[in-house]
Each structure stands twice: as structure tokens, then as C-alpha cells.
Amino acid sequence: MKTFEEKWTAWLDGQLSGKELIEFEATLPDLAVADAEKRDAQKLGSFLKQQLGVQILSNAEFFSHQLHERIARDTQDRHRPTSTWWTIPRLVWSGATALALFVITTVVLMNQHQPGEQSEYLTQILNSRVDPAANPNATIYIFESKNDNKVTVLWTEGLQTLPADYAAK
Amino acid sequence: MQLRPLLLAVFFALAVSAVSADAAQAVWSGLVIAENVPQPTPIPPELTKLEPTLKELFGYNQFEVIGQSNKTLKTGQEDWLANSKYFGLHVDARGENDSGYALNLKLYKENDVLLETDATLSKSSPLVIKGPQVGSGQLLLVLVVKDDEQAHRRRHAEPANPITAGWHRLRRIIHNVIP
Fold first, then answer.
1. Residue B19 pLDDT > 60, yes or no?
2. Which of A18, A67, B106, B132 is the most buried (most CB within 10 A)?
């Protein structure tokens, strides 16, 4: 069951016909005033359709323009390099510099202790001599103990043997 | 300004105390007779740490000190003598550097110089010199740098400089990795 408002809207739109139209128009108190109102409504409708059609077209162009701008901006952003200091070449150069510094430091450290040289943590014998007249066959060796005591040993061979009395305190 | 002389005085006092504290180390010098005996006497306390090394190197079971000296070095320029009845070890300290004490050593047999050597005695590395055969034994000269009690206490009370300690640790690591 349609309400009066529904029937009124359908009547204004010219969608009532036949028996339904006759019955509805019979319910109207003043058909002439209603017809005038219908004409005004139709005029307003056609005017609005005209205006809204232009507006819709305008919005479509506006959104289309905005979309194009957005797409262009996104495309530019994708192709533009990111603004950070750590670019690939700089990363490569930084890595190479760090490696070079490490190598230089290592070489300097290693040069401070050449293989075969006595460590600064060990006692070093700079020179040694025995009386050649009393000990003509004497020889001297220098070595370090292999254990944890880090003992430096000056080893003499061929020194003159002394009697046991010399062990006295 | 009153502050500047005061700061200078404090700095000078700290520097002097630091130098004097660093130099406060003792060098133990010993004339040792090593020999093999049926019942060896206990090794002297100064040689306790070195006992395994001495036994391994020389093959004797007894180490008897026949003369010794315990010299505290303050300037690093001192000299001293460790004497036994017939031997004398004259030690002439000629300064201190990062590696240790520069020493001139002379082993006397009565008035004759048997052996002379120049060495840098490290604070962490004892020096052992094999001298002449004496009877059935062997004369050894031993020099060890010992921390004195005050320096030992200070070292435990004050933490090491982290930069210096880190640098030495890094050097040790690199030396261990690349021998």
C-alpha cells in the first residue's frame, strides 16, 4: 500500500497512469494548484538535471586531473634517488677506508713485534761477553722458556769448572 | 690568579707521586747453586714460581741460594751487589723504560769478571743465567722484578686505565691471532 507521499512523488514524475492516476487526482483538494506545483517541480527537476550534469562533468575532470597529478608525483618519487648520505658509492668508499685503516693498524702493530724479535714483555739480553783468556771455548746462547713463566735464559757453555768449595755461602 | 699556582702544585704533586709509586719495585738477585742430592731441601720462596722452569731447564732437584740481594728501585739508577763467599753479582741499573730496567750485570769470581751482560729486565719476565759448573752443581744467577707491597696494594685498589688496558689487550689478541 503506497503512502500519499509515494503517490505524490510518482504523480509529480508522471509515473501514475490509468485507474491509479484518476483515483489519486480525485484525492487532491485542488487539481489546478497541484498541476501548477507539478509543473514547477518538473521545471526544477530539469534545471537541476542540467546543472548537476555540468557539475558532475566538472568533478570528473577535477578528480581526473588530481589523479594524473598524483600518478605523476608517485612516478617522480619512485625514480628520484632517496636523499641519504649513505649512497652506494659512499658505502663502498667507507668500507674500503675502514679496511685500509684496519690493515695499516695491523701492520703497525705487527712491525712493533717482528717474528724472532724478543717481546717487550720478556727480558731482553742486549749483549754478553765472557773473559776470553780464562774461558777460550765459552759460548753463549739466549732463549726463552716455553712455559708460562716467560723466563729469559742466558746459557753459557765452556766456562771453566770450579771446585765445590766455590759453592760456599 | 690564585687558582693557577694551586693547580700546578697539585699536578706536580700527582706527577711526582705517580712516578715515585711506579718506580717502587724491587729486584731480587740471587746466586743459586743447583745440584742433584738424595734429599733436596725445599726451594727458597723467591724461586718458588720458577721451580718447574728451573728443574726442566737444568735437571737438578735442589736449588740453594748462596747469595742474594733485594733492592727496591726508586729512580732506576741504583746499583747493588749480591755476594757469596767467592762470587759476587754486581748489578748496575741504568734507567727504566717501557720494557723494564736497563741493567749491566757482572759476575765476579773473587776479583775476576767471569761474565758481563747488558739486559733489559722486564717486570713480567725473570732472567736466569747459567754460570760455571761448581763441583757437581751449577751456579745460576737469577733476577726477578717483584712488586713491592705498596704498589701491589695500589694496583688492586685502583682500576687500570681502560684505554691503556684495552690497547694492550688488543695488541695481545692480534699477537695471538697472528704469531
1. no
2. B132
Every domain of chain A and the residues it spans: 4-79, 84-112, 118-169
Q: Which of B28, B69, B114, B133 to probe the A interface (max A CBs under 10 A)?
A: B114
Of B57, B86, B115, the CB nearest to A153: B57
Q: Specify whether the CB–CB gap between B28 and B127 falls below 8 A.
A: no
> Which residue from B minimizes the CA distance to A147?
B53
Q: How far apart are alpha carbons B77 and B61 in whole angstroms?
A: 36
* Residue B23 forms contact with A (CB below 8 Å): no
Which pLDDT tens digit goes with each residue over B62-90? 999 999 999 988 888 889 999 999 999 99
CB contact under 8 A, B139 and A126: no
User: Could you report the average pLDDT of every consecutive run of 10 residues in chain A (169 residues)?
Assistant: 84 86 87 89 86 66 86 80 79 95 89 56 88 86 83 90 89
DSSP A87: -
- The rounded radius of gyration (Å) of the Cα atoms in chain A is 56
Asked whether A125 and A146 are in contact (CB, 8 A), the reply is no
Q: Which residues of B touch A122 (CB under 8 A)?
A: 122, 124-125
Taking only the tens place, the pLDDT of each residue in B94-139 is 988 878 889 999 999 888 899 999 999 988 889 999 999 999 999 9
Q: Identify whether the C-beta of residue B28 lies closer than 8 Å to the C-beta of residue B67.
A: no
What's the CA gap between B100 and B127, in Å, rounded? 12
